Structure formats: C-alpha cells, structure tokens
Amino acid sequence: MTVMSPAVTGAAPEHKPSGGSGSVVLRGLLRNRLAVVALAVLVSLLAAALFAPLIAPYDPNTQNLLLRLRPPAWQHGGSGAHLLGTDQLGRDMLSRVVYGARVSLLVGAGAALLAGVIGTAVGLVSGYFGGWADRALMRLADVQLAFPSLLLALAVVGFLGSGLWVVIVVLGFTGWVSYARVVRSEVMSLRTRDFVTEARAIGVTDVTIMRRHLLPNVMAPLATIGTLHVAAAIVAEASLSYLGLGVPKETVTWGGMLSDGQLYLGTSWWVAVFPGIALMLTSLAINITGDALRDVADPKAYRR
After folding, report:
1. Res 180 pLDDT > 90
2. What are phi and psi of 281, to 5 degrees?
3. Phi and psi dihedrals of 296, rounded to 5?
4. 99-116 burial string, b = 16+ CB within 10 Å, else e?
5. For residue 93, pLDDT beyond 80
6. Cα(88)–Cα(261) distance, rounded to whole angstroms?
7. Three-state SS annotation for 107-140
8. What's the CA gap between 199 and 203, in Å, rounded?
9. pTM listed for this prediction
10. Is-contact 107 233, C-beta < 8 A?
11. pLDDT value of position 24
C-alpha cells in the first residue's frame, strides 16, 4: 500500500510489498523453480554475449568453403573442431550462435529501455495532469496501436535504412504504448491519495511529486513489462533480419542466420535449427522471468 513520503509527513514510510527491497524480490524468484532455470539460462546467455571472444572457438565471419555444410560433431561426417557444424560458407555455427547473442540482447535491452523511458514519461504526464493532456496523449497511443507494430517497424526501417541503432530506436519508439497505459492507470489511482494531496498543499512542485512520489510506486509493473518487451524486441529484430531489413549482413544475428539457413532445411538442418533454438530459449527464459516478477510484484502473493 502506497503511503505518504517522509518528506511530507516527517515519519518513516511503510513500504509496499511489490516495491520492496531487491532481496525480497530475489527470494520470491528463488521460490519458483522454473524461474530459477530461466534465470540460469539468461545469465548463461549474458555471459556468452559479454565473453564471446573468449568462448567462441573461431571468428564468426571467417569463411572456409572447403568445410561448408559440415554436420554437427555427433553426426556422421562431423568433426570435434566444429561442434555445431558449419554453414553454407564454412563458418563455424557455434561461434556464430554465441556472437548472435550479443546483438539480440543489445537490441532487446536497448529497445525496452528506450520504450520504457518514453512510455513512463507519457504515462506520468497523462495520468497526473489528466484533462486535455491525457486525451491528446492517449489518442496518440490509440493511433499507434492502430498499426501492427512489426509492420510499422518494417515501414520505418525501410525508409531510414538498416542498421543496429536504427533497429533499436525504431523498436523503442514502436513499443512505448504498453508502458504508458500501465503507468497512466497506476498514476490515476495514486494522484488522489493523501500523500500526493499533502505534498501539493505544502508547495511541492508537480515534477518533484511525479519523480519522488509517483515514479517509485510504478517501478514493479514497469519491471514486468520491461522483461516481456525485451523478449518481444528480440523476436522483432530476428524478424526484421530474416526479411533483410534488420542489422547489416556482416553483423551476426540469429534472424540473419535463420534467413540464410531456410534454403538448407532439407539437407543441412543445423544451419537454421541452432539459431532458432537459441532464439526460442532466450524468448522463453525472458517471458518466464517476467511472469515470475509479476507474481512477486503481486501483493496477494505475500499473503499466501
């Protein structure tokens, strides 16, 4: 339950269960075995992305046509030198999958952060002030929701051109609406509380109220939406790269690998299957973590 800030009352505040310390959230996640497995997968992927030059056995773009389409090590004709085989240009699949994690996680985190900043700002202003500002901003959100997000991203990327940062910005600007709607709903329920009314009465500015008293109370749902948006952005980037409108071809991405491997599914399945598995596991792990965060952030969970 949200309470008055100590700056207003002079007393120590009580804390919402959903906005508790990180240790409380961590304990709640650790009680969920599936979430623990998902977190382990995410930590492994993050480590692979950060230490890709140390983990990957080869440069992901080094070509050797004499070794093209070699099967994984456990299949007939495979070699221990290329555990996951090679692609149509003789590039090591394990190295490319590892390096692909870098782009996917960067795009997912970057797009979610940008969308979160924009959506939170819009939601705070819309929910706190109401009136014409609320109507104008929500109609803008309705207009954006009228366009399928992937189709809108395709149109913008096709107009601006491909590139890693272009993809991050486009996915960020096309994903802010969900943040804005949730924050607006939370702020509209908080702005009539006593601690906000008393803060106004003693002359606290609107910006300070939104920053110090309202924003901390919407962080729990924002964290949940953010994790889910990371997974959605990773899949969207893979879709754009699959269609040739994502990051440049020389940059290793799981979507680009899927696009290259679709022609070889009947003969060299590993070229498309391994990046597809990596993409599926990443999205699944992030979604499971987001669901677990939502359960931990639910105050009812603390009454069980």
Report:
1. yes
2. -65, -40
3. -65, -35
4. bbbbbbbbbbbbbbbbbb
5. yes
6. 8
7. HHHHHHHHHHHHHHHHHHHHHHHCHHHHHHHHHH
8. 7
9. 0.78
10. yes
11. 61
